[in-house]
Amino acid sequence: MTVPDARTRLGTTGLRVPPVVLGTSALGRRVGAEDAHEVLRAAAAAGWHTWDTSNEYGQAEARIGTVLPGLDAPVQVFTKADPAPGGGFTGARVRASVAESLDRLGVDRLPLVHLHDPERITFDEATTPDGPWRALLDLREQGVIGHVGVAGGPVALLRRFVRTGEVEAVVTHNRFTLLDRSAEPLLDDCAERGVGVLNAAPFGGAALATDDGPVRRYHYREVDAVQHDAVLRIRAIAREAGVPVGALALRSSTRDPRVSATVVGASSTTQLRQVLGWAADDVPDVWAALDAARPGPSHWVGPHGR
Fold first, then answer.
1. Phi then psi for 16, rounded to 5 degrees?
2. Distance (Å, rounded) from C-alpha 291 to C-alpha 96?
3. Residue 167 falls within a domain, yes or no?
4. What are the start-end ranges of the E strands in 118-244?
5. pTM greater than 0.90
6. In this structure, which of 39, 153, 157, 163 has its CB flanked by the most CB atoms within 10 Å?
7. Residue 152 domain-assigned (yes or no)
8. pLDDT tens per residue, range 190-202
Protein backbone atom coordinates (compact mmCIF):
# COMPACT_ATOMS: atom_id res chain seq x y z
CA MET A 1 0.00 0.00 0.00
CA THR A 2 1.37 3.42 -0.96
CA VAL A 3 0.73 7.06 -0.18
CA PRO A 4 -1.60 8.85 -2.63
CA ASP A 5 0.75 10.57 -5.08
CA ALA A 6 -1.32 13.69 -5.74
CA ARG A 7 0.61 16.77 -4.64
CA THR A 8 -0.39 20.34 -4.06
CA ARG A 9 1.50 23.58 -3.59
CA LEU A 10 2.25 24.62 -0.03
CA GLY A 11 0.88 28.13 -0.25
CA THR A 12 3.16 30.35 -2.31
CA THR A 13 6.38 28.61 -1.25
CA GLY A 14 6.76 26.60 -4.43
CA LEU A 15 7.15 23.48 -2.30
CA ARG A 16 4.82 20.62 -3.19
CA VAL A 17 3.33 18.34 -0.56
CA PRO A 18 1.25 15.14 -0.60
CA PRO A 19 -2.14 14.96 1.13
CA VAL A 20 -0.58 13.24 4.16
CA VAL A 21 2.78 14.14 5.74
CA LEU A 22 4.53 11.82 8.20
CA GLY A 23 4.83 13.23 11.71
CA THR A 24 7.86 11.98 13.63
CA SER A 25 7.34 13.10 17.22
CA ALA A 26 6.65 9.58 18.51
CA LEU A 27 9.59 8.18 16.53
CA GLY A 28 11.93 10.42 18.48
CA ARG A 29 10.34 10.10 21.89
CA ARG A 30 8.41 6.89 22.39
CA VAL A 31 10.13 4.12 20.45
CA GLY A 32 13.66 2.78 20.22
CA ALA A 33 16.10 3.61 17.45
CA GLU A 34 15.72 0.33 15.53
CA ASP A 35 11.93 0.54 15.51
CA ALA A 36 12.06 4.19 14.46
CA HIS A 37 14.43 3.41 11.60
CA GLU A 38 12.14 0.58 10.48
CA VAL A 39 9.12 2.90 10.35
CA LEU A 40 11.01 5.61 8.49
CA ARG A 41 12.32 3.18 5.88
CA ALA A 42 8.87 1.61 5.47
CA ALA A 43 7.34 5.06 5.04
CA ALA A 44 9.83 5.95 2.34
CA ALA A 45 9.28 2.60 0.60
CA ALA A 46 5.54 3.34 0.57
CA GLY A 47 6.14 6.66 -1.18
CA TRP A 48 5.77 8.79 1.97
CA HIS A 49 8.45 11.32 1.03
CA THR A 50 7.53 14.40 3.10
CA TRP A 51 8.25 14.26 6.83
CA ASP A 52 7.59 16.71 9.66
CA THR A 53 9.95 16.87 12.63
CA SER A 54 11.35 19.28 15.24
CA ASN A 55 14.55 20.07 17.07
CA GLU A 56 12.91 19.05 20.35
CA TYR A 57 11.32 15.77 19.22
CA GLY A 58 13.84 13.74 21.18
CA GLN A 59 16.00 11.70 18.81
CA ALA A 60 13.75 12.21 15.75
CA GLU A 61 16.11 14.38 13.71
CA ALA A 62 19.12 12.17 14.41
CA ARG A 63 17.16 9.06 13.46
CA ILE A 64 15.95 10.67 10.25
CA GLY A 65 19.53 11.67 9.49
CA THR A 66 20.62 8.07 9.95
CA VAL A 67 18.20 6.66 7.35
CA LEU A 68 18.20 9.44 4.73
CA PRO A 69 21.46 8.42 2.98
CA GLY A 70 20.22 4.86 2.37
CA LEU A 71 16.84 5.72 0.84
CA ASP A 72 16.12 5.11 -2.83
CA ALA A 73 14.31 8.43 -3.30
CA PRO A 74 14.84 11.85 -1.71
CA VAL A 75 12.72 12.83 1.28
CA GLN A 76 11.60 16.38 1.99
CA VAL A 77 12.05 17.11 5.71
CA PHE A 78 10.37 20.08 7.42
CA THR A 79 11.60 20.92 10.92
CA LYS A 80 11.04 23.44 13.70
CA ALA A 81 13.26 25.73 15.76
CA ASP A 82 12.96 25.32 19.52
CA PRO A 83 14.40 26.82 22.68
CA ALA A 84 17.06 24.88 24.52
CA PRO A 85 15.66 22.73 27.33
CA GLY A 86 15.11 25.09 30.23
CA GLY A 87 16.52 27.96 28.20
CA GLY A 88 15.18 31.09 26.58
CA PHE A 89 13.66 31.49 23.13
CA THR A 90 16.02 34.06 21.62
CA GLY A 91 17.39 34.86 18.21
CA ALA A 92 20.71 33.29 19.16
CA ARG A 93 18.91 30.13 20.23
CA VAL A 94 17.02 29.89 16.93
CA ARG A 95 20.29 30.09 15.02
CA ALA A 96 21.74 27.36 17.24
CA SER A 97 18.59 25.24 16.87
CA VAL A 98 18.78 25.40 13.08
CA ALA A 99 22.50 24.55 13.15
CA GLU A 100 21.74 21.51 15.32
CA SER A 101 19.00 20.39 12.92
CA LEU A 102 21.31 20.69 9.92
CA ASP A 103 23.93 18.59 11.70
CA ARG A 104 21.53 15.89 12.89
CA LEU A 105 19.80 15.58 9.53
CA GLY A 106 23.11 15.62 7.66
CA VAL A 107 22.01 18.29 5.18
CA ASP A 108 23.33 21.73 4.26
CA ARG A 109 19.98 23.44 3.72
CA LEU A 110 16.45 23.08 5.11
CA PRO A 111 13.41 23.57 2.85
CA LEU A 112 11.09 24.84 5.62
CA VAL A 113 11.60 25.71 9.28
CA HIS A 114 8.83 26.72 11.66
CA LEU A 115 9.10 28.77 14.82
CA HIS A 116 7.80 26.14 17.23
CA ASP A 117 5.20 26.91 19.90
CA PRO A 118 5.75 30.69 19.95
CA GLU A 119 3.22 30.85 22.77
CA ARG A 120 6.16 30.12 25.08
CA ILE A 121 6.95 33.83 24.81
CA THR A 122 4.90 36.89 23.89
CA PHE A 123 4.38 38.06 20.31
CA ASP A 124 6.33 41.22 21.06
CA GLU A 125 9.25 39.22 22.45
CA ALA A 126 9.21 36.93 19.42
CA THR A 127 9.30 39.77 16.90
CA THR A 128 11.93 42.10 18.38
CA PRO A 129 14.90 42.89 16.10
CA ASP A 130 17.08 40.39 17.98
CA GLY A 131 14.28 37.90 18.64
CA PRO A 132 13.62 34.39 17.32
CA TRP A 133 11.35 35.36 14.44
CA ARG A 134 13.84 37.85 12.98
CA ALA A 135 16.58 35.24 13.31
CA LEU A 136 14.49 32.82 11.25
CA LEU A 137 13.91 35.48 8.60
CA ASP A 138 17.63 36.24 8.51
CA LEU A 139 18.44 32.56 7.97
CA ARG A 140 16.03 32.53 5.05
CA GLU A 141 17.73 35.60 3.57
CA GLN A 142 21.10 33.86 3.97
CA GLY A 143 19.82 30.78 2.11
CA VAL A 144 20.29 28.44 5.07
CA ILE A 145 16.56 27.71 5.00
CA GLY A 146 14.20 28.05 2.07
CA HIS A 147 10.95 29.11 3.75
CA VAL A 148 9.68 30.10 7.21
CA GLY A 149 6.56 29.32 9.15
CA VAL A 150 5.04 29.12 12.60
CA ALA A 151 3.79 25.98 14.34
CA GLY A 152 1.79 26.21 17.50
CA GLY A 153 -1.42 26.02 19.46
CA PRO A 154 -3.27 29.28 20.15
CA VAL A 155 -5.10 30.26 17.00
CA ALA A 156 -5.25 33.94 17.93
CA LEU A 157 -1.45 34.09 18.20
CA LEU A 158 -0.88 32.23 14.92
CA ARG A 159 -3.28 34.62 13.18
CA ARG A 160 -1.24 37.53 14.51
CA PHE A 161 1.90 36.07 12.94
CA VAL A 162 0.11 35.48 9.65
CA ARG A 163 -1.03 39.11 9.56
CA THR A 164 2.62 40.26 9.51
CA GLY A 165 2.78 39.11 5.89
CA GLU A 166 6.07 37.33 6.59
CA VAL A 167 4.76 33.82 7.33
CA GLU A 168 4.80 31.32 4.46
CA ALA A 169 3.39 28.25 6.22
CA VAL A 170 1.53 27.35 9.41
CA VAL A 171 1.20 24.15 11.42
CA THR A 172 -1.96 23.99 13.52
CA HIS A 173 -2.84 20.99 15.66
CA ASN A 174 -5.95 19.50 17.30
CA ARG A 175 -8.05 22.45 16.15
CA PHE A 176 -9.42 21.22 12.84
CA THR A 177 -10.93 17.84 13.59
CA LEU A 178 -14.30 16.11 13.79
CA LEU A 179 -14.58 17.47 17.36
CA ASP A 180 -13.13 20.96 17.08
CA ARG A 181 -13.11 23.74 14.47
CA SER A 182 -11.18 26.41 16.40
CA ALA A 183 -8.77 26.81 13.48
CA GLU A 184 -11.42 27.95 10.97
CA PRO A 185 -10.49 31.68 11.17
CA LEU A 186 -6.80 30.82 10.85
CA LEU A 187 -7.44 28.68 7.78
CA ASP A 188 -9.42 31.53 6.22
CA ASP A 189 -6.59 34.00 6.91
CA CYS A 190 -4.04 31.64 5.37
CA ALA A 191 -6.17 31.03 2.26
CA GLU A 192 -6.59 34.77 1.77
CA ARG A 193 -2.83 35.42 2.03
CA GLY A 194 -1.50 32.36 0.20
CA VAL A 195 -0.05 30.79 3.35
CA GLY A 196 0.31 27.01 3.29
CA VAL A 197 -1.46 25.07 6.06
CA LEU A 198 -0.24 21.82 7.59
CA ASN A 199 -3.03 20.47 9.77
CA ALA A 200 -1.64 18.17 12.47
CA ALA A 201 -3.28 15.74 14.89
CA PRO A 202 -6.56 15.17 13.01
CA PHE A 203 -7.31 12.32 15.45
CA GLY A 204 -6.90 14.52 18.53
CA GLY A 205 -4.86 11.74 20.10
CA ALA A 206 -6.66 8.40 20.22
CA ALA A 207 -10.20 9.76 20.50
CA LEU A 208 -10.83 9.79 16.75
CA ALA A 209 -8.58 6.90 15.79
CA THR A 210 -10.42 3.95 17.33
CA ASP A 211 -13.82 2.47 16.54
CA ASP A 212 -14.58 1.18 20.02
CA GLY A 213 -13.27 1.11 23.56
CA PRO A 214 -13.29 3.83 26.23
CA VAL A 215 -13.11 7.50 25.27
CA ARG A 216 -10.70 9.15 27.68
CA ARG A 217 -8.61 11.91 26.16
CA TYR A 218 -8.68 14.54 23.45
CA HIS A 219 -5.92 17.06 22.82
CA TYR A 220 -3.69 15.96 25.72
CA ARG A 221 -6.45 16.19 28.33
CA GLU A 222 -9.43 14.31 29.70
CA VAL A 223 -12.57 14.61 27.56
CA ASP A 224 -15.61 16.27 29.05
CA ALA A 225 -19.04 14.63 28.97
CA VAL A 226 -20.13 16.48 25.82
CA GLN A 227 -16.99 15.51 23.91
CA HIS A 228 -17.36 11.92 25.12
CA ASP A 229 -20.91 11.67 23.78
CA ALA A 230 -19.89 13.33 20.51
CA VAL A 231 -17.22 10.69 19.93
CA LEU A 232 -19.82 7.97 20.46
CA ARG A 233 -22.10 9.64 17.88
CA ILE A 234 -19.22 9.90 15.42
CA ARG A 235 -18.41 6.22 15.92
CA ALA A 236 -22.05 5.35 15.22
CA ILE A 237 -21.94 7.36 11.97
CA ALA A 238 -18.77 5.55 10.96
CA ARG A 239 -20.30 2.13 11.67
CA GLU A 240 -23.38 2.95 9.64
CA ALA A 241 -21.21 4.20 6.77
CA GLY A 242 -19.04 1.07 6.94
CA VAL A 243 -15.75 2.93 7.32
CA PRO A 244 -13.28 3.32 10.21
CA VAL A 245 -13.53 6.43 12.36
CA GLY A 246 -9.89 7.12 11.50
CA ALA A 247 -10.70 7.31 7.80
CA LEU A 248 -13.42 9.89 8.49
CA ALA A 249 -11.14 11.91 10.76
CA LEU A 250 -8.34 11.95 8.20
CA ARG A 251 -10.58 12.74 5.24
CA SER A 252 -12.27 15.60 7.09
CA SER A 253 -8.88 17.31 6.97
CA THR A 254 -7.56 16.27 3.56
CA ARG A 255 -10.80 17.20 1.78
CA ASP A 256 -10.63 20.86 2.82
CA PRO A 257 -9.06 23.04 0.09
CA ARG A 258 -7.55 25.38 2.69
CA VAL A 259 -5.41 22.54 4.07
CA SER A 260 -2.30 21.88 2.01
CA ALA A 261 -1.39 18.68 3.85
CA THR A 262 -2.33 16.76 6.98
CA VAL A 263 0.37 15.65 9.42
CA VAL A 264 -0.14 12.17 10.89
CA GLY A 265 2.26 10.31 13.13
CA ALA A 266 2.99 6.59 13.19
CA SER A 267 5.07 4.82 15.83
CA SER A 268 5.04 1.33 14.27
CA THR A 269 4.76 -0.24 10.84
CA THR A 270 1.31 -1.49 11.87
CA GLN A 271 0.15 2.08 12.48
CA LEU A 272 1.81 3.12 9.25
CA ARG A 273 -0.21 0.59 7.26
CA GLN A 274 -3.36 1.61 9.12
CA VAL A 275 -2.94 5.29 8.21
CA LEU A 276 -2.16 4.42 4.60
CA GLY A 277 -5.34 2.35 4.52
CA TRP A 278 -7.41 5.21 5.92
CA ALA A 279 -5.93 7.59 3.35
CA ALA A 280 -6.97 5.23 0.56
CA ASP A 281 -10.46 4.39 1.87
CA ASP A 282 -13.53 5.45 -0.06
CA VAL A 283 -15.49 7.69 2.30
CA PRO A 284 -19.23 8.30 1.70
CA ASP A 285 -20.82 11.72 2.03
CA VAL A 286 -21.59 11.78 5.74
CA TRP A 287 -20.26 15.27 6.37
CA ALA A 288 -23.59 16.84 7.30
CA ALA A 289 -24.16 14.15 9.93
CA LEU A 290 -20.64 14.62 11.26
CA ASP A 291 -21.11 18.39 11.45
CA ALA A 292 -24.29 17.84 13.46
CA ALA A 293 -22.45 15.49 15.82
CA ARG A 294 -19.72 18.01 16.60
CA PRO A 295 -19.89 19.78 19.99
CA GLY A 296 -20.42 23.52 20.06
CA PRO A 297 -17.57 26.06 20.34
CA SER A 298 -17.69 26.10 24.14
CA HIS A 299 -16.20 22.60 24.01
CA TRP A 300 -13.43 23.49 21.54
CA VAL A 301 -9.90 24.43 22.50
CA GLY A 302 -10.64 28.05 21.60
CA PRO A 303 -8.47 30.85 20.15
CA HIS A 304 -6.20 31.19 23.19
CA GLY A 305 -6.08 27.61 24.43
CA ARG A 306 -2.71 25.90 24.69
1. -115, 135
2. 44
3. yes
4. 145-152, 169-173, 196-200, 217-218, 221-222
5. yes
6. 39
7. yes
8. 999 999 999 999 9
